[in-house]
Amino acid sequence: MPLAAIPIAIGAAASIAGMAVKGAAANSAADAQQKIADAQASVANQRLDMAKTDAANMASMAAPTAQELQQISTRLDMQSRYQAVQEASLSRDQKILSSLDPALITAGQQANQMMQGQQAAILAPMRQMQQMQSNQLQSKLAAQLGPGWQTSSAGMAAMQQFQMQSNMQLQQAQMQAFNQVSQFMGFGMQQRTQLMNQQRMGFETGAQMQAGTMAQMSNLQSRQLQAAEFGAAEKQNAMAAVQQTAGHEYVGQAAAAKGLSGVGDSLGSFGGQVMGMGMGAMSGGMGGMGGGGGGGIPGGSSSFTPQSINTPGQYSLGAQF
Protein backbone atom coordinates (compact mmCIF):
# COMPACT_ATOMS: atom_id res chain seq x y z
CA MET A 1 0.00 0.00 0.00
CA PRO A 2 1.44 3.41 -0.88
CA LEU A 3 2.39 5.46 2.14
CA ALA A 4 0.02 8.27 1.05
CA ALA A 5 -2.95 5.90 1.22
CA ILE A 6 -2.34 4.76 4.83
CA PRO A 7 -3.57 7.96 6.54
CA ILE A 8 -6.60 7.95 4.27
CA ALA A 9 -7.47 4.39 5.23
CA ILE A 10 -7.03 5.10 8.93
CA GLY A 11 -9.16 8.26 8.77
CA ALA A 12 -11.82 6.42 6.77
CA ALA A 13 -12.02 3.61 9.30
CA ALA A 14 -12.23 6.04 12.22
CA SER A 15 -14.91 8.10 10.49
CA ILE A 16 -16.97 5.06 9.58
CA ALA A 17 -16.78 3.87 13.20
CA GLY A 18 -17.84 7.31 14.40
CA MET A 19 -20.80 7.36 12.02
CA ALA A 20 -21.83 3.88 13.19
CA VAL A 21 -21.82 5.11 16.78
CA LYS A 22 -23.71 8.19 15.70
CA GLY A 23 -26.38 6.09 13.96
CA ALA A 24 -26.78 3.88 17.01
CA ALA A 25 -27.13 6.95 19.23
CA ALA A 26 -29.75 8.37 16.88
CA ASN A 27 -31.75 5.14 17.04
CA SER A 28 -31.47 5.06 20.85
CA ALA A 29 -32.65 8.66 21.10
CA ALA A 30 -35.52 7.92 18.71
CA ASP A 31 -36.58 4.99 20.88
CA ALA A 32 -36.48 7.21 23.98
CA GLN A 33 -38.55 9.90 22.28
CA GLN A 34 -41.08 7.30 21.14
CA LYS A 35 -41.43 6.02 24.72
CA ILE A 36 -41.92 9.56 26.02
CA ALA A 37 -44.57 10.26 23.36
CA ASP A 38 -46.33 6.97 24.13
CA ALA A 39 -46.30 7.78 27.85
CA GLN A 40 -47.72 11.26 27.23
CA ALA A 41 -50.42 9.81 24.98
CA SER A 42 -51.26 7.22 27.62
CA VAL A 43 -51.58 9.91 30.29
CA ALA A 44 -53.78 12.00 27.99
CA ASN A 45 -56.05 9.04 27.26
CA GLN A 46 -56.25 8.20 30.95
CA ARG A 47 -57.22 11.79 31.66
CA LEU A 48 -59.93 11.57 29.01
CA ASP A 49 -61.25 8.35 30.55
CA MET A 50 -61.23 9.97 33.99
CA ALA A 51 -63.03 13.04 32.62
CA LYS A 52 -65.72 10.83 31.11
CA THR A 53 -66.07 8.93 34.38
CA ASP A 54 -66.22 12.17 36.38
CA ALA A 55 -68.82 13.60 34.02
CA ALA A 56 -70.94 10.47 34.35
CA ASN A 57 -70.60 10.55 38.14
CA MET A 58 -71.52 14.23 38.27
CA ALA A 59 -74.55 13.65 36.07
CA SER A 60 -75.59 10.75 38.29
CA MET A 61 -75.15 12.82 41.45
CA ALA A 62 -77.04 15.75 39.93
CA ALA A 63 -79.97 13.60 38.85
CA PRO A 64 -83.06 14.05 41.07
CA THR A 65 -83.43 11.45 43.78
CA ALA A 66 -86.56 9.39 44.30
CA GLN A 67 -87.31 11.46 47.40
CA GLU A 68 -87.00 14.73 45.48
CA LEU A 69 -89.27 13.46 42.72
CA GLN A 70 -91.78 12.31 45.34
CA GLN A 71 -91.68 15.73 46.99
CA ILE A 72 -92.34 17.48 43.70
CA SER A 73 -95.15 15.05 42.90
CA THR A 74 -96.70 15.66 46.33
CA ARG A 75 -96.42 19.41 45.86
CA LEU A 76 -98.08 19.26 42.46
CA ASP A 77 -100.88 17.08 43.84
CA MET A 78 -101.47 19.43 46.78
CA GLN A 79 -101.38 22.39 44.46
CA SER A 80 -103.96 20.78 42.15
CA ARG A 81 -106.27 19.95 45.06
CA TYR A 82 -105.94 23.41 46.55
CA GLN A 83 -106.73 24.95 43.18
CA ALA A 84 -109.89 22.83 42.93
CA VAL A 85 -110.97 23.93 46.44
CA GLN A 86 -110.25 27.54 45.57
CA GLU A 87 -112.27 27.35 42.38
CA ALA A 88 -115.26 25.93 44.28
CA SER A 89 -114.92 28.57 47.00
CA LEU A 90 -114.61 31.30 44.43
CA SER A 91 -117.75 30.11 42.66
CA ARG A 92 -119.65 30.10 45.96
CA ASP A 93 -118.36 33.54 46.94
CA GLN A 94 -119.32 34.94 43.56
CA LYS A 95 -122.87 33.73 44.05
CA ILE A 96 -123.01 35.36 47.48
CA LEU A 97 -121.63 38.59 46.12
CA SER A 98 -124.04 38.47 43.20
CA SER A 99 -126.98 38.36 45.62
CA LEU A 100 -125.41 40.66 48.19
CA ASP A 101 -124.40 43.49 45.93
CA PRO A 102 -127.92 44.31 44.65
CA ALA A 103 -129.26 44.27 48.24
CA LEU A 104 -126.46 46.57 49.31
CA ILE A 105 -127.23 48.91 46.44
CA THR A 106 -130.95 49.02 47.36
CA ALA A 107 -130.15 49.54 51.05
CA GLY A 108 -127.79 52.32 50.16
CA GLN A 109 -130.44 54.02 48.07
CA GLN A 110 -132.99 53.75 50.90
CA ALA A 111 -130.54 55.12 53.45
CA ASN A 112 -129.78 58.03 51.16
CA GLN A 113 -133.49 58.79 50.73
CA MET A 114 -134.16 58.68 54.48
CA MET A 115 -131.21 60.96 55.11
CA GLN A 116 -132.83 63.43 52.68
CA GLY A 117 -136.13 63.32 54.68
CA GLN A 118 -138.06 60.78 52.69
CA GLN A 119 -139.90 58.13 54.65
CA ALA A 120 -138.83 54.58 54.36
CA ALA A 121 -140.87 52.33 52.15
CA ILE A 122 -141.39 49.93 55.07
CA LEU A 123 -143.40 52.66 56.88
CA ALA A 124 -146.26 52.52 54.35
CA PRO A 125 -148.23 49.89 56.34
CA MET A 126 -147.83 51.99 59.50
CA ARG A 127 -149.14 55.08 57.76
CA GLN A 128 -152.12 53.13 56.53
CA MET A 129 -152.79 51.90 60.08
CA GLN A 130 -152.50 55.41 61.44
CA GLN A 131 -154.95 56.67 58.79
CA MET A 132 -157.48 54.04 59.86
CA GLN A 133 -156.98 54.96 63.52
CA SER A 134 -157.46 58.67 62.64
CA ASN A 135 -160.73 57.89 60.85
CA GLN A 136 -161.98 55.90 63.82
CA LEU A 137 -161.06 58.71 66.24
CA GLN A 138 -162.86 61.28 64.10
CA SER A 139 -166.00 59.10 64.02
CA LYS A 140 -165.86 58.70 67.76
CA LEU A 141 -165.41 62.43 68.38
CA ALA A 142 -168.27 63.24 66.01
CA ALA A 143 -170.52 60.88 67.90
CA GLN A 144 -169.49 62.25 71.27
CA LEU A 145 -169.21 65.97 70.56
CA GLY A 146 -171.70 66.30 67.75
CA PRO A 147 -171.52 68.65 64.79
CA GLY A 148 -168.66 71.12 64.96
CA TRP A 149 -166.45 68.84 66.93
CA GLN A 150 -163.48 69.78 64.69
CA THR A 151 -163.47 73.30 66.15
CA SER A 152 -164.28 72.35 69.68
CA SER A 153 -161.55 72.42 72.25
CA ALA A 154 -161.96 68.76 73.11
CA GLY A 155 -161.98 67.69 69.46
CA MET A 156 -158.97 69.78 68.54
CA ALA A 157 -157.00 68.54 71.57
CA ALA A 158 -157.81 64.91 70.82
CA MET A 159 -156.76 65.21 67.18
CA GLN A 160 -153.55 67.10 68.06
CA GLN A 161 -152.60 64.45 70.61
CA PHE A 162 -153.27 61.66 68.09
CA GLN A 163 -151.25 63.43 65.42
CA MET A 164 -148.34 63.98 67.79
CA GLN A 165 -148.33 60.33 68.81
CA SER A 166 -148.52 59.24 65.17
CA ASN A 167 -145.59 61.48 64.23
CA MET A 168 -143.53 60.14 67.11
CA GLN A 169 -144.30 56.58 66.02
CA LEU A 170 -143.30 57.41 62.44
CA GLN A 171 -140.07 59.07 63.58
CA GLN A 172 -139.17 56.12 65.78
CA ALA A 173 -140.02 53.71 62.99
CA GLN A 174 -138.02 55.82 60.52
CA MET A 175 -135.03 55.79 62.84
CA GLN A 176 -135.32 52.05 63.37
CA ALA A 177 -135.57 51.51 59.64
CA PHE A 178 -132.52 53.68 59.04
CA ASN A 179 -130.60 51.80 61.72
CA GLN A 180 -131.63 48.49 60.25
CA VAL A 181 -130.59 49.58 56.77
CA SER A 182 -127.30 50.90 58.15
CA GLN A 183 -126.67 47.68 60.05
CA PHE A 184 -127.49 45.64 56.98
CA MET A 185 -125.14 47.74 54.89
CA GLY A 186 -122.41 47.40 57.51
CA PHE A 187 -122.89 43.64 57.72
CA GLY A 188 -123.06 43.35 53.95
CA MET A 189 -119.89 45.37 53.44
CA GLN A 190 -118.13 43.39 56.16
CA GLN A 191 -119.23 40.15 54.55
CA ARG A 192 -118.15 41.39 51.15
CA THR A 193 -114.75 42.48 52.47
CA GLN A 194 -114.29 39.15 54.20
CA LEU A 195 -115.07 37.28 51.00
CA MET A 196 -112.69 39.43 49.02
CA ASN A 197 -109.93 38.94 51.62
CA GLN A 198 -110.49 35.20 51.54
CA GLN A 199 -110.16 35.21 47.78
CA ARG A 200 -107.01 37.31 47.96
CA MET A 201 -105.45 35.05 50.60
CA GLY A 202 -106.42 32.02 48.54
CA PHE A 203 -104.72 33.46 45.47
CA GLU A 204 -101.62 34.36 47.49
CA THR A 205 -101.42 30.89 49.04
CA GLY A 206 -101.79 29.27 45.62
CA ALA A 207 -99.11 31.55 44.20
CA GLN A 208 -96.74 30.70 47.06
CA MET A 209 -97.31 26.99 46.57
CA GLN A 210 -96.64 27.32 42.86
CA ALA A 211 -93.53 29.43 43.48
CA GLY A 212 -92.18 26.83 45.93
CA THR A 213 -92.73 24.03 43.43
CA MET A 214 -91.13 26.03 40.62
CA ALA A 215 -88.15 26.91 42.83
CA GLN A 216 -87.55 23.25 43.70
CA MET A 217 -87.80 22.21 40.06
CA SER A 218 -85.52 25.09 39.04
CA ASN A 219 -82.92 24.01 41.60
CA LEU A 220 -82.94 20.49 40.20
CA GLN A 221 -82.59 21.76 36.63
CA SER A 222 -79.80 24.15 37.63
CA ARG A 223 -77.97 21.35 39.39
CA GLN A 224 -78.20 19.11 36.33
CA LEU A 225 -77.13 21.94 34.02
CA GLN A 226 -74.07 22.72 36.14
CA ALA A 227 -73.10 19.05 36.17
CA ALA A 228 -73.50 18.85 32.39
CA GLU A 229 -71.41 22.00 31.87
CA PHE A 230 -68.71 20.71 34.22
CA GLY A 231 -68.57 17.36 32.45
CA ALA A 232 -68.44 18.99 29.03
CA ALA A 233 -65.59 21.28 30.10
CA GLU A 234 -63.62 18.39 31.59
CA LYS A 235 -64.04 16.26 28.49
CA GLN A 236 -63.16 19.19 26.23
CA ASN A 237 -59.91 19.83 28.12
CA ALA A 238 -59.07 16.13 28.06
CA MET A 239 -59.79 15.90 24.35
CA ALA A 240 -57.50 18.88 23.74
CA ALA A 241 -54.72 17.04 25.58
CA VAL A 242 -55.36 13.92 23.50
CA GLN A 243 -55.29 15.96 20.28
CA GLN A 244 -51.91 17.36 21.27
CA THR A 245 -50.54 13.80 21.37
CA ALA A 246 -51.96 12.90 17.96
CA GLY A 247 -49.34 11.17 15.80
CA HIS A 248 -47.25 10.11 18.82
CA GLU A 249 -46.70 6.69 17.20
CA TYR A 250 -44.60 8.35 14.46
CA VAL A 251 -42.32 10.41 16.73
CA GLY A 252 -39.66 7.68 16.95
CA GLN A 253 -39.70 7.09 13.22
CA ALA A 254 -39.29 10.80 12.54
CA ALA A 255 -36.40 11.11 14.99
CA ALA A 256 -34.69 8.00 13.57
CA ALA A 257 -35.11 9.27 10.02
CA LYS A 258 -33.61 12.61 10.95
CA GLY A 259 -30.66 10.89 12.64
CA LEU A 260 -30.02 8.62 9.65
CA SER A 261 -30.28 11.60 7.35
CA GLY A 262 -27.51 13.28 9.35
CA VAL A 263 -25.38 10.13 9.08
CA GLY A 264 -25.97 10.04 5.32
CA ASP A 265 -24.91 13.67 4.99
CA SER A 266 -21.75 12.92 6.97
CA LEU A 267 -20.97 9.90 4.77
CA GLY A 268 -21.45 11.93 1.63
CA SER A 269 -19.18 14.70 2.91
CA PHE A 270 -16.56 12.22 4.09
CA GLY A 271 -16.60 10.40 0.74
CA GLY A 272 -16.01 13.65 -1.09
CA GLN A 273 -13.04 14.54 1.14
CA VAL A 274 -11.50 11.09 0.82
CA MET A 275 -11.85 11.20 -2.94
CA GLY A 276 -10.31 14.65 -3.10
CA MET A 277 -7.38 13.75 -0.90
CA GLY A 278 -6.83 10.48 -2.78
CA MET A 279 -6.68 12.37 -6.04
CA GLY A 280 -4.25 14.82 -4.46
CA ALA A 281 -2.03 12.04 -3.18
CA MET A 282 -1.97 10.39 -6.55
CA SER A 283 -1.09 13.64 -8.22
CA GLY A 284 1.71 14.34 -5.72
CA GLY A 285 3.15 10.86 -6.11
CA MET A 286 3.30 11.20 -9.81
CA GLY A 287 5.05 14.53 -9.47
CA GLY A 288 7.67 13.05 -7.10
CA MET A 289 8.46 10.27 -9.45
CA GLY A 290 8.99 12.72 -12.24
CA GLY A 291 11.40 14.72 -10.11
CA GLY A 292 13.61 11.84 -9.07
CA GLY A 293 11.67 10.65 -6.05
CA GLY A 294 11.10 13.24 -3.43
CA GLY A 295 10.34 10.61 -0.85
CA GLY A 296 6.77 11.70 -0.12
CA ILE A 297 3.90 13.91 -1.14
CA PRO A 298 5.33 17.28 -2.05
CA GLY A 299 3.56 20.02 -0.24
CA GLY A 300 1.33 17.38 1.42
CA SER A 301 0.97 16.00 4.89
CA SER A 302 1.87 12.60 6.21
CA SER A 303 -1.35 12.35 8.30
CA PHE A 304 -5.12 12.77 7.68
CA THR A 305 -7.83 14.20 9.97
CA PRO A 306 -11.45 14.26 8.74
CA GLN A 307 -13.00 17.69 9.16
CA SER A 308 -16.69 17.11 8.47
CA ILE A 309 -17.61 14.20 10.76
CA ASN A 310 -19.85 15.26 13.60
CA THR A 311 -19.68 13.46 16.90
CA PRO A 312 -22.90 11.86 18.28
CA GLY A 313 -23.14 14.56 20.90
CA GLN A 314 -23.42 17.19 18.18
CA TYR A 315 -26.49 15.64 16.56
CA SER A 316 -29.82 17.11 17.47
CA LEU A 317 -32.72 14.67 17.74
CA GLY A 318 -35.29 17.28 17.03
CA ALA A 319 -37.91 18.87 19.25
CA GLN A 320 -38.80 16.93 22.34
CA PHE A 321 -42.47 15.81 22.46
H-E order: HHHHH
Distance between the termini: 51 Å
Please tally the β strands and state the result: 0
Please count the helical segments.
5
Number of separate domains: 2
Largest sheet: none
Query: What fraction of residues sit in β-strands?
Result: under 5%
Query: What percent of residues adopt helix (DSSP H or I)?
Result: over 70%
Q: Shape from CA axes?
A: rod-shaped
* Low-pLDDT residue spans: 286-321
Based on CA atoms alone, the radius of gyration comes out at: 62 Å
By secondary-structure content and strand pairing, the structural class works out as mainly alpha
**What's the rounded overall pLDDT mean?**
76
General description of the model:
This protein is mostly helical. The protein has two domains: 1-62 and 246-276; 66-225. The chain is 82% helix and 0% strand. It has five helices and no strands. The chain has helices spanning 5-62, 66-115, 124-145, 153-244, 251-290. Helix 1 (5-62) packs antiparallel against helix 5. The longest helix has 92 residues, at 153-244. The radius of gyration is 62 Å and the shape is rod-shaped.
